[in-house]
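Reading group handout, session on sequence-to-structure problems. Before we discuss, look at one worked example. The prompt was deliberately terse, the way you'd type it at a terminal:

> structure YrhK domain-containing protein

The input record follows.
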Amino acid sequence: MKLFRHDAPDRSEEAQALYARAELAYTCIDFGAALAFLVGSILFFYNDLQETATWFFVIGSIAFAAKPTLRLWREFKLYRMGDMKDLAERYEE
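And the output record:
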Protein backbone atom coordinates (compact mmCIF):
# COMPACT_ATOMS: atom_id res chain seq x y z
CA MET A 1 0.00 0.00 0.00
CA LYS A 2 1.56 3.26 -1.11
CA LEU A 3 0.88 6.47 0.73
CA PHE A 4 -1.32 8.93 -1.18
CA ARG A 5 -2.53 6.24 -3.57
CA HIS A 6 -6.31 6.58 -3.68
CA ASP A 7 -7.01 3.96 -6.33
CA ALA A 8 -5.75 0.88 -4.46
CA PRO A 9 -8.16 -1.91 -5.45
CA ASP A 10 -7.36 -3.99 -2.37
CA ARG A 11 -8.72 -1.49 0.15
CA SER A 12 -11.34 -2.67 2.60
CA GLU A 13 -14.80 -1.13 2.83
CA GLU A 14 -13.67 0.55 6.06
CA ALA A 15 -10.68 2.10 4.29
CA GLN A 16 -12.82 3.23 1.36
CA ALA A 17 -15.32 4.83 3.75
CA LEU A 18 -12.51 6.61 5.62
CA TYR A 19 -11.11 7.89 2.34
CA ALA A 20 -14.54 9.17 1.25
CA ARG A 21 -15.16 10.93 4.59
CA ALA A 22 -11.72 12.53 4.48
CA GLU A 23 -12.26 13.74 0.91
CA LEU A 24 -15.61 15.24 1.92
CA ALA A 25 -13.97 17.03 4.86
CA TYR A 26 -11.15 18.20 2.57
CA THR A 27 -13.67 19.69 0.13
CA CYS A 28 -15.58 21.39 2.97
CA ILE A 29 -12.32 22.90 4.23
CA ASP A 30 -11.59 24.15 0.69
CA PHE A 31 -14.97 25.85 0.46
CA GLY A 32 -14.63 27.30 3.96
CA ALA A 33 -11.19 28.72 3.20
CA ALA A 34 -12.34 30.17 -0.12
CA LEU A 35 -15.39 31.73 1.53
CA ALA A 36 -13.27 33.22 4.34
CA PHE A 37 -10.87 34.78 1.83
CA LEU A 38 -13.74 36.07 -0.30
CA VAL A 39 -15.51 37.68 2.67
CA GLY A 40 -12.20 39.07 3.94
CA SER A 41 -11.45 40.56 0.53
CA ILE A 42 -14.83 42.26 0.35
CA LEU A 43 -14.53 43.61 3.91
CA PHE A 44 -11.20 45.24 3.03
CA PHE A 45 -13.12 47.72 0.88
CA TYR A 46 -14.46 49.28 4.09
CA ASN A 47 -11.95 51.02 6.35
CA ASP A 48 -13.90 50.37 9.54
CA LEU A 49 -14.06 46.60 8.79
CA GLN A 50 -10.38 45.98 8.06
CA GLU A 51 -9.72 44.30 11.41
CA THR A 52 -12.61 41.90 10.79
CA ALA A 53 -11.29 41.32 7.27
CA THR A 54 -7.90 40.42 8.71
CA TRP A 55 -9.54 37.82 10.96
CA PHE A 56 -11.26 36.26 7.94
CA PHE A 57 -7.86 35.97 6.28
CA VAL A 58 -6.45 34.32 9.41
CA ILE A 59 -9.36 31.86 9.45
CA GLY A 60 -8.83 31.10 5.75
CA SER A 61 -5.12 30.55 6.37
CA ILE A 62 -5.86 28.15 9.22
CA ALA A 63 -8.25 26.24 6.96
CA PHE A 64 -5.59 25.97 4.26
CA ALA A 65 -3.14 24.69 6.89
CA ALA A 66 -5.70 22.09 7.97
CA LYS A 67 -5.87 20.59 4.47
CA PRO A 68 -2.43 18.93 4.38
CA THR A 69 -2.85 17.98 8.03
CA LEU A 70 -6.08 16.15 7.21
CA ARG A 71 -4.52 14.46 4.20
CA LEU A 72 -1.51 13.27 6.20
CA TRP A 73 -3.75 12.00 9.02
CA ARG A 74 -5.87 10.11 6.47
CA GLU A 75 -2.84 8.49 4.86
CA PHE A 76 -1.37 7.35 8.17
CA LYS A 77 -4.76 5.99 9.21
CA LEU A 78 -5.09 4.10 5.92
CA TYR A 79 -1.51 2.89 6.25
CA ARG A 80 -2.31 1.46 9.68
CA MET A 81 -5.37 -0.32 8.23
CA GLY A 82 -3.20 -2.14 5.68
CA ASP A 83 -1.72 -5.60 5.86
CA MET A 84 1.73 -4.97 7.31
CA LYS A 85 3.01 -8.42 6.37
CA ASP A 86 3.31 -7.70 2.66
CA LEU A 87 3.51 -3.92 2.77
CA ALA A 88 7.05 -3.88 1.37
CA GLU A 89 6.02 -5.92 -1.66
CA ARG A 90 3.11 -3.60 -2.47
CA TYR A 91 5.26 -0.53 -1.91
CA GLU A 92 7.69 -1.63 -4.63
CA GLU A 93 4.95 -1.79 -7.30
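Points for discussion. First: The two ends are 9 Å apart (CA to CA). Second: Residues 36 and 58 are 9 Å apart (CA to CA).
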